[in-house]
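Inputs:
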Amino acid sequence: MEIAIDSTNTQKFTKASDFTPAELATKSIVDLLGKTQIQKAEIDGLIVSSSSNDLYLGNIVSEMIGIRPKFSTKVENLCNSGTSGIMLAYSLIKSGLCDAVLVTGTEKQDSQGNKLTWDASRGQYDMPIHWASLYAQNHFRKYGTTEEDLAIISLKNHASANKNKNALFYDKQFTYSSIINSKMMVEPLKKFDCCYPCEGSSSILLLSEAKAKRTEVPVWIRGISQNNQGASFGSISNDLDSIISTRIAAREAFEQSKLTPKHIDIVEIHDAFTILELLAYEDLGFVEKGQGRKIIKENTLYTNVRGGLLGCGHPIGATGIDQTNEIVLQLQGRAGLRQKEGCEIGLVHNMAAAGTSSTVIILQK
Amino acid sequence: MKLIDIIINYAEKGILLTTYCFNCKIHIWPPNRYCNFCFNKTGFRKMNRKGILLEKSFSNLPDLVGYYGIGEFSGIRIIGSVDQSVLPYDRIRISQVGVKNNKLDLEFSKIRVKRLK
């Protein structure tokens, strides 16, 4: 059985509001249900993706939108929560347990998911930028990547966010100078090499093949895979060259889809820090190890056209869903000002906690 | 008592403990009551303080200004502050063990190679 994505919704990402995580989720779902052919009563699964402390969110949101689904739960997998929810929804439909599963991501800016306190290997240096900078230093030293390369990634993604009304930095103009001269945080990463934690919600509806026949422009999941390498920064690969979980998830997703990186027209990459986008180019298989900067310089692939985490902000539980929504909209031809022509196949890359967990999804219209 | 609290208590006295599997003869880190290879119960053991620096950087974040790096010691990777002169792949030792904000506060220094006269 094939699994399709029908409708999507993302609310504007903001710094803060009076909405609770459940209210943020509800707003996004209500807007999604307003534009799908699928009736509310047909939704037989609801998954809420969030690192919020709020308990029983799946059932709370179910009640708030007035559904009584066969299956409902909250999924938490730090920054990789959103696509973890999508993978669970995919599995529920693939197994025949459900036919129409909503996945909604919701997060407040002060989420506990912004930092993994369990990881004793980080010592005093427990902010994510410290592990990201070690990846960057390694890439600079071994492969000659420069601060300028990272600034180009930041500029590209912030400029894309200027075409995305839901992006946190929709209204803010960045220049190469403002990025390269921004405050050094942890060498070599500067202020605008880093994404900004924010609040937001984003929803997506997955359907069985039978239900998808009733929709106008279904987008099909051709490959979906996740890999987990543990939780601590100390448990990752033998060197800092690669995000191993990304490499494995990508390999398996491509195998499932019978496609290769050459088939991909557009990609959403988890750019929590600029260096992670560069590493992902390599680990997803678009270029050889050490050649990530080629993608930026030669402009051979549409990347992070919604603005990435850098331009949109990073509401942890919602990010992976909004990334997927962007590829769905692009393949459906509904991306508005951001629409890239001729996109048939897209890829989503979402990851968490120093690269210990990654999900890769390949979508086709 | 939580394992990490025991480790923190010893670290306050300058002693760096990890959990250890006496069956597999490996350190288990972050601390765990079971070996994640053989599932035998773990005990505590002092860590070998000699290792190698894998990578380093410089932090400008408040209260953390200075060089830091990730080192590998007896198969365990852990982050601590380092001296500017230490370079990746240099042999290092954990020269100071302490606690700050209820988290391990380690300092790595370069192992000087003694030249034979």
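Chain B has one helix and eight strands. Flag for discussion at group meeting.
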